[in-house]
Amino acid sequence: MQAGRDDRSLGELFAELAQETSTLVRQEVELARVELSRNATRIGRNVASLVVGGAIVYAGFLAIMAAIIVALGEAGLPWWLSALLVGVVVAGVGAGLVARARTALQQADLAPRQTVETLKEDREWAKEQIG
User: How far apart are CA 41 and CA 35, in angstroms?
Assistant: First the structure.
């Protein structure tokens, strides 16, 4: 079989190299698409869970805050001051949660790492084939 390869012309060898390189590039693009799709799906599911859970927690949270405002008002604080104190505390906690979630989303790794590695390997392979 090796003897058959030696009988081919330089043009045939370059044509085969071009065809193999084209196939390799198409496969790498498909791998990148699959990787990105998988990452996006995972993030989408997590964001949906976050939104639904947040809405449910928010409803319960509003009831608890109303109860705290009423309790403070009944304890002798003016109603407006009770509402202001509870509002300030809630806003502070909310700001902290938003900052933490934003940081987590910014640190999410969406890069197709496997594709990058195989592209590096392919580049080295192509250099060996040409050189």
Answer: 10
